[in-house]
Amino acid sequence: MDQSLSYVLVTPYTIAKSRTGGVIARLLTRLDLELVGAQMIAPDENFVKEYAALIRSQHDPANPRAANLLANYIEKNLGPSGGRRHRSLLLLFRGNDACKKLSDICGALYAENLGIESITGETIRDTYADLITDPENPERVIYFEPAVLTPHNQKWAHEDLKLFARFLPDQPNIIENYVHPDPSKIERTLVILKPDNWKYNSSRPGTIIDMFSRTGLRIVSVKVHRFSIAEALEFYGPVKEALKTKLSPVFGKKARELLEQEFNLSLSPETEKALTESFGVEYAADQFEQIVEFMSGKKPSACPVEEMHHPGSVKCMILVYEGVQAVQKIRDVLGPTDPLKAPMGTVRREFGSNVMVNTAHASDSVENARREMAIVKIEKNTCADVIKAYLEMIHK
Questions:
Q1: Three-state DSSP class for residue 342
Q2: Would you kindly state where each structural domain of the chain is located, as residue ranges?
Q3: Model's pTM, two decimal places?
Q4: Cα–Cα distance between 159 and 169 in angstroms, integer?
Q5: Lowest-pLDDT range, 68-72, 223-227, 284-288, 295-299?
Q6: CA distances from residue 335 to 196, 320, 353 in whole angstroms, order as listed
Q7: In this structure, which topology does domain 4-173+381-394 adopt according to CATH?
Q8: Is 361 one of the catalytic residues?
Q9: Chain segment 312-329, per-residue pLDDT in tens
Q10: How far, in Å, CA of 197 to CA of 199, rounded?
């Protein structure tokens, strides 16, 4: 099959150690596959039991110990412990030979058991996984952390995806698995990795997530999203009036200066006011249209009314961070709107181009975070739909 679908499941330990960004960066830079879905999940005991049984049945003659090793790990580490579920991150990739490519970049299970000089760092498991065996009995595993889970062949991928398709629809898209000592101090904030990060496969999305990890905040929700024009208009609605107020006088004055220079005459303040209320306002409106086009892929003025709510042609990744002073901590790492004015080491200074193409958005208050989460429907995720559509297609 040319366009197959497979997955990578980032383990709770990898997430807890803030290695999520590094894993995503490795996956995006080393593969020509498209990331089509992402969802933070917290498996329950029933899912873990079924998933482990499925993995145990996927026996590889070339590596007979692998299935049991992985199944035992899943039973012990993916399910709830101490009355609390644990976060795992599901990443869906689509493309030619997706399963083999993901398996190759994730790496072999037993490579970590080689001598330290033999570890190349090429694969995700080379970098993030551990397998320690008893020196006197190599069959006895003392410690095992695979970092990521991914099927070894497409048949197994289809079996696993069927399980995810049954599990995901009933799962919340915001994980609430942790009781904070003082809940009154906890905030949630929204982050958007904008479309300029997804024009081609690069390490940028993963590196940005890695930079945000320095805040110590928890990621409680992830989704791949395509803004409709209607969503983008609502999301950036408050910016429209601000642009008019800020830009209209600037470009009204600029228009007056250019006319005076071109025609060698002096224009009155009344003329400048008229230019501000005409040309200046139109310029500000065009800038707003460009913002909506950047986020959705199309200008509102060029979109038929019946298509306003259709998913856009460009994608972004939406994340929700949770913790004490989450809003300010994220914005400190993000940097100001203009990348040229952002301090060294901030996300926008490192990756932004200008005030529009500035790589990421972060809510500026808890209230705005709630408003923005409602607009992008953060409680919904398309992963289950992507899997269901794929499974229906392959069984036609």
A1: coil
A2: 4-173+381-394, 232-307
A3: 0.91
A4: 17
A5: 284-288
A6: 17, 18, 13
A7: Alpha-Beta Plaits (3.30.70)
A8: yes
A9: 999 999 999 999 999 999
A10: 6
